[in-house]
């Protein structure tokens, strides 16, 4: 299926007796935003770690455009085209915004085992990075250290870094967290454009944003996906309502 | 004056002073001061090596004396066989510094590769301890292996040769050490500015992020560790020739500690941190050692004060925090 | 090679291991509870030995000296914790290594200033002089007493940690530092007490060993390195691990030095065999440590799950 | 660590200007801290005593502690030659330190006078006109112990020494004259403090006697542990393990041990009587053989400075070769390799007036010289 970019097949991960990820399968198709929601402790973080390669699964597969990624490290998966952002901003804090993006670009374009040419004199890298920063609206903040950027700016820088990887698909882990309503609105618009470039697997707490943005939604509870569908389908799903609204499901 | 300019001026001052003081000593006939300057330069080379792993890569190697010792023993063993006219594993000894340096760097790089490949699987205190354990293995191996002097060490009766120089003369030996130091600093500066340095420093600050942009931390760190070991190994070969003596003490854990101390006194990750630190340490020893036999007490207090209150070392104190642009 | 010889060497290994345990217990507690690498632990061992030797020489009573050694090391530990160590808990390992490296320089030189450059010699107490017949072999009574002492202290430590309020706090501190705050424990006080306890154990080891060896500046550092090997093998933070690690290191080191030259002697001539055997024997425990770290990076008995 | 003791002679020395105008700078590198400190302190004190007793002289003495570490000794030697401009180095206690320092020192046309260490390599093929050994070649006293072990009727001796040049020399020297069987042969680590494993092997070996060479703190630790072990075999040794620096710390455990020495505090000659009395007067303790060697070394230098200017190396060397001084050990003569030819006594450890010390009970060799001299081209 040429339309499926990312596919998870029967992923499992146990921590002792706890089934943190329990037979999760889902697909991410070209041009879509697939949101993953679930209450706290549902296993979203674990699933993200399995997809990005931070944790090895006990069973199951991760496929990107039909290519098996399961045995690859985080770095290899990133090279293969997984562009992830972190739930809590995770940047190279002493580097400027520009250098953070350049780091992603240097990995994308060639490799890091170059010992001679000063990286700051690499015009292609610099220009490329500036372009990415401009796209997320951080053009004026290029030379500011990541540690000094505001919270919202760091969220945007996360996106810019993911963009710089020119990935086959994005994995965005709560990109709206702590952005405020203005910032969220801007980002929603941005993501809607972005999905045509590469599909987005979105983990997000902000339900309004999710229901506005997502083409499909999967609901994760106790490590299992209990439902997948469009926004109206999910809204209507009694199991989901039970989990989120505390409504009793008819036995 | 902004900080970058201050650091630049400080660096220029240090490198000029390190040349001018022994030159003055040469003029007034004080060979011991030249020897001291040579020792500073060689210790600084060793610390430049460690600074790649520790300063740029954040790898707290508590066993860098191992590479110093490997380099030292390469020089000592080569000279020993050249002197006695015997062979080692079918190869003749040599009293030429250039081939000795090449072998010293290759061998210490190889050792660093093995140690790094195993140690880099761990992190934090475990990394500190496993690097220490490997260095202790080297220490005890040389201590009890009788062929090259064991505990007694191995004297180099005549300093190894360098084309065009008379290495027995303190000034010539100094020129050699100074030249290699400048080269080592250039290599360090180049590495740091290049893509490799960008990746390495990013890994130190945030390995997860660096992996997520597709740069594998293990490979980068291993290469850095090997380069680091090679430069420290080169310094070891030169130090052996300076003192005309190699002994297991070169691999003692206190030597590893001293190399870290040098970097901290100067400034971690700073280009000239090792030079400033080595000058401070040797200067401290000579100056306070002349005043009181308990100079190590004062060294301890100064070091404690630096760690507790002046994290950036002397360069940090003068030129502030480093900026990565 | 007789059974008697093997037995005696085994006892030597156990005695060595138990003294290493006294050193390692403090080190591992301090790391487990406070997350601190303390290189100056060997200096506390030295302080205990010097105080014991000085007081025993002055009063003629070993036991008074031992008390002084333990109490003095504990006091020195508490003082160091309050003045320096306290500022290092939040710092990274590099800072801890360096600051405690500086403490070694300060304490060693300080002791040298006070007691002079010569070794002191501490006499074995009269009631423990001489040797006893164990049936298969005779053995030094004092060394036997050290084994008994080591076992008793290990039991006492186990009781302290398993049964007392302080022990509960220590265990809480090891598993979750925030939890002990929630328990309403004064963390500063707890840290000082744990550090002093570790120092007391180190001082005790120094004083006990001082009576059969010599008491000199720098005596603590070789033991310190071995104690690090012990806790890395045993699992940092684990008292049980320290015990197993210490006995392993003590016995393997002693038996290695004894057996390896003999084994090498089967293949090589005597003088070569002694060299090769000794070289391998002295590397043996570091090899063990490297293997443990490679295959069980958290040690044999990891403290945190 | 740096004990700097600059003893400049009575002001007079330079101004009155004895026959030889130029000052002689003697750099003394010796062990003043750690387990081996007792030996270095005695060499230094003996040397200083000779200068003090000489009154007027033109010797400038600079003393530094090597902490028994070869790499430190090398650095100090470099500084003494380059910075202090020393003409003569002396003081090294340990053979491994001597091997590290002496060859490059004498090659720079500096004299080295050994007050203690006498490694075989420096007596044989690597002998040098600028190297004089005022004490003994390492093997000598051990050879005496070996010869005396035969006399005592020992047939199955366990022998043990630290693993460094003097240790190998010691065992070789003992075996050269000993005729019985060896119950076992062990090398220990230099500076080792725990001998439990070695004692176990001695116990299991079935030996009838022990020969040990464990100088300084090593000897003290071993003897104290040996006493507690329940092994009770007679010990024969060279003077080093039972010299006056060790005996007070070992105590009664040492009584009755036979040891070979070229010197003893009860040696009956005028120079020695004066030396022992003056040493006791100055330092309040009995001198050890190390003190006697330091004393002799200083007197040898003094005798040479009276005859030649140290800047004239050849003349000064000749003056040293004449050895025109009164040794506290009695007659003193050089073998061609510039090591002494001397009598080797056997001493027994005894208690005299509550002080544990040595007493001469016999002679092992009369005019003994070392075997390595044959390989010396001089």
Short summary of the structure?
With 325 residues, chain B is mainly α.
Would you write up a description of this structure?
Chain A is of the alpha/beta class. Chain A has helices at residues 44-52, 74-80, 97-108, 123-135, 151-164, 180-194, 207-213, 231-236, 238-245; strands spanning 4-15, 18-29, 33-37, 59-64, 67-68, 82-85, 169-173, 200-203, 216-221, 224-229. Chain A has 9 helices and 10 strands. Chain C has a two-stranded antiparallel ribbon with strand order 1-2. Chain C has one domain: Orthogonal Bundle (ABC transporter involved in vitamin B12 uptake, BtuC). The relative contact order of chain C is 0.18. In chain D, strands 7, 8, 9, 10, 11, 12, 13 and 14 form an 8-stranded mixed β-sheet that branches. A 6-stranded mixed β-sheet of chain D has the order 1-3-2-4-5-6, sandwiched between helices. Chain D has helices at residues 12-17, 37-54, 70-82, 95-107, 120-123, 139-151, 165-177, 196-205, 217-229, 247-250, 270-283, 289-305, 313-322; strands spanning 7-8, 24-30, 59-65, 88-90, 111-114, 131-133, 156-162, 181-188, 209-212, 235-238, 258-261, 333-334, 340-352, 355-368. In chain D, β9, α9 (217-229) and β10 (235-238) form a beta-alpha-beta unit. Chain D has 2 domains: 7-136 and 266-334, Response regulator (Rossmann fold, 3-Layer(aba) Sandwich); 139-261 and 343-375, Response regulator (Rossmann fold), CATH 3.40.50.2300. Chain D has 378 residues and is an alpha/beta fold. Mean pLDDT of chain D is 89; it is low at 1-20. Chains in contact: A-B, B-C, B-D, C-D. Chains B and C meet through α5, α10 and α12 of B and α4, α9 and α11 of C.
Give the helices and strands, then pairings.
The complex is a heterotetramer of chains A (251), B (325), C (305) and D (378).
Chain A: E1 4-15, E2 18-29, E3 33-37, H1 44-52, E4 59-64, E5 67-68, H2 74-80, E6 82-85, H3 97-108, H4 123-135, H5 151-164, E7 169-173, H6 180-194, E8 200-203, H7 207-213, E9 216-221, E10 224-229, H8 231-236, H9 238-245
Helix pairs in contact in A: 3-4, 3-5, 4-5
Chain B: H1 3-28, H2 31-56, H3 65-84, E1 87-88, E2 91-92, H4 97-119, H5 124-144, E3 154-155, H6 170-193, H7 195-205, H8 207-212, H9 217-243, E4 245-246, H10 253-266, H11 273-291, H12 295-309, H13 313-319
Antiparallel strand pairs in B: 1-2, 3-4
Helix pairs in contact in B: 1-2, 2-6, 2-9, 2-10, 2-11, 3-4, 3-5, 3-9, 4-9, 6-7, 7-9, 10-11, 10-13, 11-12
Chain C: H1 3-34, H2 41-59, H3 62-83, H4 93-115, E1 131-133, E2 138-140, H5 141-163, H6 165-175, H7 177-182, H8 187-210, H9 220-234, H10 239-265, H11 270-295
Antiparallel strand pairs in C: 1-2
Helix pairs in contact in C: 1-5, 1-6, 1-8, 1-9, 1-10, 2-3, 2-4, 2-8, 2-9, 3-8, 5-6, 9-10, 9-11, 10-11
